[in-house]
Amino acid sequence: MPMIDPNFPLIDLHRHLDGSVRIETILELGRKHNLPLPAWDIEGLRPQVQITKPQPGVMAYIAKFEWMVGILVDYADCRRIAYENVEDARNEGLDYVELRFSPWFMAEPHGLDPAGIVEAVIDGVTEAQREIERKVNLIGIISRTYGPDSAKAELNALLNCRDDIVALDLAGDEANFPGELFVDHMHLAKDAGWHITIHAGESAGAESVWQALKGLGAERIGHGVHAEEDEELLHYMAENGIGIEANLTSNVQTSTVPDYASHPLRRFLEDGLMATINTDNTGVSGIDLPYEYEVAAPAAGLTKVQIHQAQRNALEVAFLSQPEKQELLSKYTGDAPL
């Protein structure tokens, strides 16, 4: 029984562009640039770049990104993977996707300029939107993992193209680089007119989610798994319409939860939180959004009604204007109001 509501837009709000690279593209760019890939065929390379069994934490999961970004030798490569991300979203049946990326992370393997990365990604997505006719917005990431000074440089690279980006995210090593280090960064992002979404409650506890909300001004929380440990926090998030970007499969793969059935997404929805279903990294996790709806969500105990509610929540908390939301919805409902 299909779980996706065919009469409502299908949306992914939490997808890392740099973790959603095709294996075929890794192979092609590896050959083009004479890179030392660990294998030279799809099935040989797959276990090197995709998760095949749960990892002992988020940073072990992120290690699988090595060749996702390791093949980005020049800016043309960055444009290519950005374009292909939009193409893949179309092929999955998505109506709207928010693609997030860390220019510092993408630039590091081959010493590229993060500002050039930002421009290349925007060029690739812009070209894809024009040709493929899919609605896409970009979220810039500053990576905790490199510390606040590098994050400031990364933020400056993103701010060079502030009109082409809708939001700022903080991602990376949550356990060792708490959000308190990045308060000033988020003030600058808000001054630029951006929305704020924060990875929190994945490798740290509920206190990390509180800090993201109160200290960083988050409107949405990426993952947020450990929010379930604090009843007051759940109430606050429900009362304030805070979006939760849930990522079922990646949370199992990072051992944030032991299995789908242990994931708190069902509880979030039962408690009235604006929880949504997303992919995180289609390339690293080896999944797509239909898989998360049709396989992962039922395995996490969600009913069809709850899955449809998560699908509706995604439109509600998307970083879109009301006219843009109405335009997406009108493809399914005509001119009926939201």
The total of helices stands at 17
Radius of gyration: 19 Å
Low-confidence stretches: none
Amino- and carboxy-terminal Cα gap: 27 Å
The CATH homologous superfamily is named: Metal-dependent hydrolases
Mean pLDDT: 97
Q: Within the CATH hierarchy, at the fold level, what is the topology?
A: TIM Barrel
What's the count of strands?
Answer: 8
Share of helix among residues? 40-55%
How do the strands of the widest beta sheet line up side by side?
A: 1-2-3-4-5-6-7-8
Q: Any idea what the CATH architecture is?
A: Alpha-Beta Barrel
In terms of quaternary structure, the protein is single chain
Largest sheet: 8 strands, parallel
Domain count: the total is: 1
Q: Could you explain how this protein is built, in words?
A:
48% of the residues lie in helices and 13% in strands. With 338 residues, it is of the alpha/beta class. The chain has a single domain, classed as Metal-dependent hydrolases (TIM Barrel), CATH 3.20.20. The mean pLDDT is 97.
